[in-house]
Amino acid sequence: MSRKLPADALRHMAFAVVGGFFGAYAILGPCGVFGNAQTVNLLQLLFDSLFGQWYSLLLHAGALLCYMAGVMSAVILRRKYHRDPGRISPFITAAAALLLEFLPVTIPSVAFMYPIFFSMSFQWTAFSGACGFNSSTIFSTNNVKQATLGLAEYLCDKDPSHLRRTVFFARTLVAFHCGAALAFLAVYWLPTHVPLCALPLIFLSYVSVVREENAAAFSSEPAAVKKTTFPV
Known about the structure:
The chain is mostly helical. It is about 75% helix and about 0% strand. The chain is built from eleven helices and two strands; from the N terminus they run ααααααββααααα. α1 packs antiparallel against α10, α4 (about 85-100) runs antiparallel to α6 and α4 runs antiparallel to α10. Residues about 225-230 have low confidence and may be disordered.
């Protein structure tokens, strides 16, 4: 039996690396805030409204709108225009990286993160999981929970499916934090060009999408066609 990861699992891990890179860059770079999710941003919105800090409130409201726009864009592309957002997501993220490269770091940190809010929410909507598991490639909370639940359930009933669940989510966490470690190294060695360091990772994520599509097309072909087209 082959021990190779399925194509969708490899794609999932590749995008988790990208998610980890941008998540860490938002914290370690000029932003200082995690840009892949909305919990902190929504809390800051509340605090700004309570303290009457209207300029900051507008900036955080803009971040929320960028995040929502990323989600909506992926859905509209898929459902209304019948386009695969998974194919488009790497280009969106690459465009965000290039924009971050040229944005002045003197602008408010929340506004600087707008490309991250948009591109990461688009990626999350384009890829909701793999191998039958719902899993985020841009943050870790539920991945930690699912890995822990799978381990606890395996210890209770020894069902191998629970162990597979734990391994899948643990691999996602490892991939995410590998991307975060790469961002750390980029901030340390190339602090003024960190977004450009993400481009090779984004390219690999695109390759993983194409590989998954090719694997799906090959598996759907009749056996005779497979043998003729891909001789052993």
